[in-house]
Amino acid sequence: MRSAEMDEKSLNNDRYVYLFDDVARAERNVGGSWDAVRELLGGKGANLGKMASEGLPVPYGFTVTTEACLDYLKQDSISEQVWTSVLDALRKVETRMGKKFGADVDPLLVSCRSGAKFSMPGMMDTLLNTGLTDANVVSLAKATNPRFAYDSYRRLIQGFGAIVMGVADDLFEEQLKTYKAKAGYESDLDMTVDDWKAIVSIYRTILKEQTGSDLPQNPLVQMKMAITAVFSSWNSERARAYRNATGIPHELGTACNIQSMVFGNMGDTSCTGVAFTRNPTTGENRMFGDFLPNAQGEDVVAGIRSCFNVHELKGRFAQAYEELLRVGNNLEQVFRNMQDIEFTVQEGKLFMLQTRDGKRTARAQVRIAKDMVREGLISKEEAVKRVQTGDVDVLLMPQLDEREMEEARRKSLMLASGVNASPGGAVGQVALDSKTAEELHSQGKDVILVRQFTKPDDVPGFFASKGVLTAEGGATSHAAVVARQFGIPCICSASTIVIDTEKRCFTTAQGTVVHEGDVISLNASVGEVFQGPISTVDANFEHEEDLQMILDWSDEIAAENYTRNNKKMRGLKVFSNGDSGVDSAKARAFGAVGIGLCRTEHMFFGSERLPLMRKFILSQDTKQRAAALDDLLPIQTADFEAIYRAMSGFPVIIRLLDPPLHEFLPDRDALVSSVAKMEVSSNGLRRQLEETRELLAQVESLHESNPMMGLRGVRVSILYPELIKMQVKAIIGAACNVRREGMSVLPEIMIPLISVSKELEMVRHQCELYADEVLELNNMKDLSYKIGTMIETPRAAVTADEIARSADFFSFGTNDLTQMSFGMSRDDAERRFLQDYVNKNILMKNPFQSLDEKGVGKLVHMATNDGREANPALQIGICGEHGGDPSSIVLCHKMGLDYVSCSPYRIPAARLAAAHACLW
Amino acid sequence: MRSAEMDEKSLNNDRYVYLFDDVARAERNVGGSWDAVRELLGGKGANLGKMASEGLPVPYGFTVTTEACLDYLKQDSISEQVWTSVLDALRKVETRMGKKFGADVDPLLVSCRSGAKFSMPGMMDTLLNTGLTDANVVSLAKATNPRFAYDSYRRLIQGFGAIVMGVADDLFEEQLKTYKAKAGYESDLDMTVDDWKAIVSIYRTILKEQTGSDLPQNPLVQMKMAITAVFSSWNSERARAYRNATGIPHELGTACNIQSMVFGNMGDTSCTGVAFTRNPTTGENRMFGDFLPNAQGEDVVAGIRSCFNVHELKGRFAQAYEELLRVGNNLEQVFRNMQDIEFTVQEGKLFMLQTRDGKRTARAQVRIAKDMVREGLISKEEAVKRVQTGDVDVLLMPQLDEREMEEARRKSLMLASGVNASPGGAVGQVALDSKTAEELHSQGKDVILVRQFTKPDDVPGFFASKGVLTAEGGATSHAAVVARQFGIPCICSASTIVIDTEKRCFTTAQGTVVHEGDVISLNASVGEVFQGPISTVDANFEHEEDLQMILDWSDEIAAENYTRNNKKMRGLKVFSNGDSGVDSAKARAFGAVGIGLCRTEHMFFGSERLPLMRKFILSQDTKQRAAALDDLLPIQTADFEAIYRAMSGFPVIIRLLDPPLHEFLPDRDALVSSVAKMEVSSNGLRRQLEETRELLAQVESLHESNPMMGLRGVRVSILYPELIKMQVKAIIGAACNVRREGMSVLPEIMIPLISVSKELEMVRHQCELYADEVLELNNMKDLSYKIGTMIETPRAAVTADEIARSADFFSFGTNDLTQMSFGMSRDDAERRFLQDYVNKNILMKNPFQSLDEKGVGKLVHMATNDGREANPALQIGICGEHGGDPSSIVLCHKMGLDYVSCSPYRIPAARLAAAHACLW
To answer: Residue limits of the PEP-utilising enzyme C-terminal domain (chains A, B) (predicted)?
Structure first.
């Protein structure tokens, strides 16, 4: 009596071991947080405890804590104290179960299972039937049935060998296979008692041969070795590698769960199964799973026999089925999430072996989150939190059919792989240049544009294509950026393909030659190129009602006032980048509340426009130049009108011409080559040679050694004020026209690449002059417009206070700001060393994809604060690649920006990220 | 009596008018500062007052203040109050002189002269003889001599017409010339009384015709109009333009000095002259000047008659001569500077009309400053303050002979002009490429390298040349930077010359064809190119003893502890950039106390080394690469040894390889062109074509769209750690060798282009590994070395705290930092828009020449503070162009840097600037 009391007491105070129904004590000890309980007991142990505490049918047992694991790892042995606690707990389980662990007669058997805070491959899994010995297997055979007993015993030997002693599992499986083959058996079900006995004997030989020792016949030794194996597996190479890759801390440790065995293989009244409380693919609120009669858990997973749908339990195990549904429901109430459960029915009685939050597809994630709000299980905030931006991306991209791809891979129809620059699936005929792409497209063909790399004048080719494949350039190369902007699947850096534009084909590493016009398929979500067509599965935002619901809630959350630094704040608004009415309509459909970046130069690459632009650039005098601009004016005006119409009531931020002028001219190398060839050949091409030479000279005169830092942005406007005049006339003129149609127009003019405040002052003044002239002419002086600037040079960020005095808004051009802050040209860096930097952990991530918080972020933060101090009315946002990157969006929120702008297809994810930022 | 008392009192309190001997009251009123007195009375008035107060023989008079001028400019008329004050003061002058202003008999005549705080062309100069009228000229003729009286009268009419009424002076001069020609006179001395009377009449006609009015016969009206004209001239177009150009504030205004006339034209006992108290060309302490007997001041300046040396006064005006020497000495004691004086001897008596600090050559400036310290007139600090860094530059450059250049200009032998990128004079034969330059040089010829622009592989050509001329590239282009580094005169941007490398010649705008081998001369201090040879005048630092004295004092001042923010600080040390033993010896001779930047890549461009470097770059595997490096190792080691020897006892900071690798490879365009040509011609060059194609492919693979922000600096070291190994072995190995020779070696390894702290951490670790290996091998583990980094990307500046933890020193690479902060590629910007920006006042100055305080400076300041906070032992300096720019040096001092490093030839000026920074 006194000893029992002491036992009770000692376990009550125990740090290392918790009985399943003792989870409340664990919660108290760690201060009440469920997260801390999971850290102490592991996810599996905590959940088993929770189930037990809720009175659900859990086979009794206990958890040896992660602390015990960490102690073990430090001392390299299970301490006396821990072992004493284990034995104490075991005694309590024996009392509850009315059986003795490993007793010769009617023994208590247990499973030993690892369970860390985060589920993790690479660690020891489950050792079943611990406690069986040569002695008690005989008694078990008598008490239950012999076939079951020896089957169980061989499982222990196999598991102990493979998991605890490190023998290759294949050795056991091979022998079993050979044995069955010899006997002419098709399945384990054909095995007789004697067969299993023979297998037991074979397995013991393997164990002996491989490890020099036999299965310990002392059940406690089995258990101790199992616990030791679980703890050791925390530091296995695979586990460490997995933690490195996923960022799980190495100092967490794993718990070990000791649970009384129940048996699904005790005959026809027993079964075992796994199930999800809802459909993990569609999210439908109906249990989804499989079971196997007369089997142990691993058989279900192993797929040895074909399983039955979980709902077929109804016929065969009616009571257990009812209880399973009830328990499933109960678990969802407890864990407020869809559960992934393991269960066993032993002689008609249901036991729960494990529960955890179930993995699911993006589609299921969204539906379940929405449904659970409707069911009152979770709040809208919780639902929004649960949906990840990656889920949204996946939902919105058409994808290649998985099954067909699998087949294509098997048939070696994969041509190349590259960087998954813009996700989705695309199928079409190869076009090796933009012109061909446009031609094929005009014939109603689906096209895949295949290029060494792309340039701005390839943009028309993008519009004509279903997908883009390049041999060069990384995830933020021109091709990638443009593709993402327009939601075109794109694979970059497929460096093994060799394009031959003369012979109009490309060759793969395997020597396959793909000709222009041949069909290929891009799995751009992953980066695989396939020969021939593969079916695609479409996405359609309008039909994604569940997602739309989640995004509407996201908008609500971002719009709600919340408090930061004692101030009521609004979350980030999501604007869209867009250069046309079509873009803008798409952006509105996706939920953008403004255009944050209209790149006017994209409008100049169209086939009717490029010649005018070249005429402007190559003009010898202002008169010629003015004539070219006069021709461009109505075209630009019409462009802007279309955008304003689509964005009625929302702001439209239009950037003045930004790129260096030579981007509009023919390629320099090609001209050098032409001139050289003409010089050598004597075919009387004198005039043509002279002309080409002259053109080359003009191109040369515009050539720059570092064009990114040359004559572009506001510098072009200052050199050619007539360009500002034309653009402002188009911007404000179009606004007047559309307003006359009865719409609400909110134009904003953005000046790019400021590095000196005077640049902005000067150009702002000119813009106002021209704008007011147009307004006067239209008799619309009350039409208000804003003038702001990009902050994209480090110096602009550092002198933001001065610049803010002439700006109504700042828009951080974090692409250029990152390039200039790092001193890294994006394309050059990604092509030559950036990946190496990430691999070597010099950089944690590519700063062109995710905003660099420490460096570029510091500049953005400084500029935001200095700018607002100088001009409290300043509106501040970000445009460009980072504006669509979820982690960057959270950073923008933290720094107090007003909006982010990203490509139309990234808007849904951005809306979600903006809400996440408010919730975290 | 009562009225006189009141007069006395009213003038004592007068704000607008100060009598000459009343300068003490002016000093009191403005708070005692001489600068403020000069602002109130103008430089001329203040100095006249000072002389009068010192009892020197100044014709009495008074100054109407700049305040009165500002009042006038505001109200557009002389106020009643000012005029009353003028009349009061005039009465006092009349009393003192015992004459009445403009009286009919024995009139008091005055001069009216403008005088602002800063001497300024474009304003009204001097109106002499004010107060003469038709009436009193007769009396004056009787009292003195008639010829003098009518000469004076015609001068008044001419001056009044030209200066007060704005009549073109030529009209008067033409008539006088015609008159003399008709009469057959050679000089004014031939003119008789009647002749002058006739001229008076002719001049009055001109005045009447041109202005419609006659000379006012009321003397007070003459004076009031004269004062009005002086005040108005402050806002003349020329004066405003001059102030805009020189940065003189427009709100200062000018004073007007009214001074009793004395006459140097009263016959042979009278004369007038100008003199410097010391020689303004050589600085010799002996009065230097001219005088003219029987003349008025303007005659001396006008050069109408040839003057006498001032020391000839001794024979003709012995007493006045003695007094002049005494007065000169006295003035130097009062103004503690060499004076530029105007004097008149009237009937044997000396009068001082003006004194001011004298302008002088750089050489005189230095000598006078040194002498005055020796004479106890000024302190060393004052001497150092007076010498400007520009003076030092001028002293140290060989120059073309001025006289010969004048002749060449006259003969139209000037071929072109350009930017004076690196000062000095150079004469030599034209070489159109580096190879030719080296060839001619090896034949003992003087060479001028003439290129479109230069690249790193032209550097050997620089060494072979006396001067460099380029058609492209500004003051900080490659050519300019390298030229300054090596003290080679260089003219850039001579855009009118057209180079034809086929025909081996260049053509000027005038069509002159200059062939390779022809001699030209560069006046690179100004930017002029001459045909044919012009003699040069050499500079020799060792012989510049006066300058050396000044610089020694500068070093003393910079080394003295001074206090800033309550801390004792040392001024800036001056280090030198240098890549060789020769450079380093030069640097020591110029007074550098360390090498702040040794660019190892410059060593790779030598003719024996470039092939090895190319071998390294084009290697297909690490083995080939290692072999190339093995060959380079002994060469680098020897380079470093030479530097250490020259710098024994001083730190040597060696930068690891910095430029992008393609800079070591052949030109891409040339290869493209070659390939194209070979493709067309069918001369069986198949193998050569293949080889060229392959080379082009390799060059292409290293090609970058923005090489400045590509694979260079530390990025190369990280990609090719074997390069670090070779360089560290050479750096530390050489240090061991030289130390064994008994010298003190202080090597410091500098890692370029850090943008992420991990880069430095990683490379530092490798450097330490290799260095310690070498030290162990040499058994010299006590040889200490430092490892630091360039701060040249904005991100490095922003994350300086992290970087400082792995750095022993920072060296700001402000060239790149400026490029990246502004987002401006230096060459592209200077070629295409930077000058336009300066012209339009968008930028006040070229930020590549003078450190941009607001932007780049802010980053430097942040990084300095953050770096020191994280690592208080951090040494901080600056290398590159700004390190030799005086205003940037002052800024570096303000930001608390420890040293600046500049090219050897800029060291003297930098030493001076470092002292200036301590004194201001």
So the answer is: 567-916
